[in-house]
Amino acid sequence: MRLKKSIAISENGFVFNAARGDSFSTNPIGLFILEMIKAGKDTKVVQQEVTNKYAIDDSTAERDIHDFVKMLKQYDLLD
Amino acid sequence: MTKLRYERPVIKALNTGVTNKFGAQQGFIPHTHIDGVAVKDLIAEHGSPLFVISEKTLRDTYRKAKSAFSTRYPNVQFAWSYKTNYMNAVCNVFHQEGSWGEVVSRFEYEKALRNGVPGDKIIFNGPDKTTDDHRVAIANGSPIHIDHLDELYSLIELSDEMDKRPRVAIRINMDTGIQPMWDRFGFNYENGQAWDAINKIMHSKKLDLIGLHCHIGTYMLAAQAYGVAASKMADLALNIKKKFGHSIHYLDLGGGFASKNTLKGAYLSGSDVAPTFADYAEHISTALLNAGFEPDELPLLILETGRAMVDDAGYLLGSVLANKRLSDGRRATILDFGVNLMFTSFWYEHTISPAQECSQYAEDAVLYGPLCMNIDVIRENVKLPPLNKGDQVVVHRVGAYNMTQWMQFIALRPRIVMVDLDSKVHLVRDSEDLDYMMHLERVPEHLKSFEL
Question: Which domain range does residue A70 map to?
Answer without folding.
Answer: 7-74
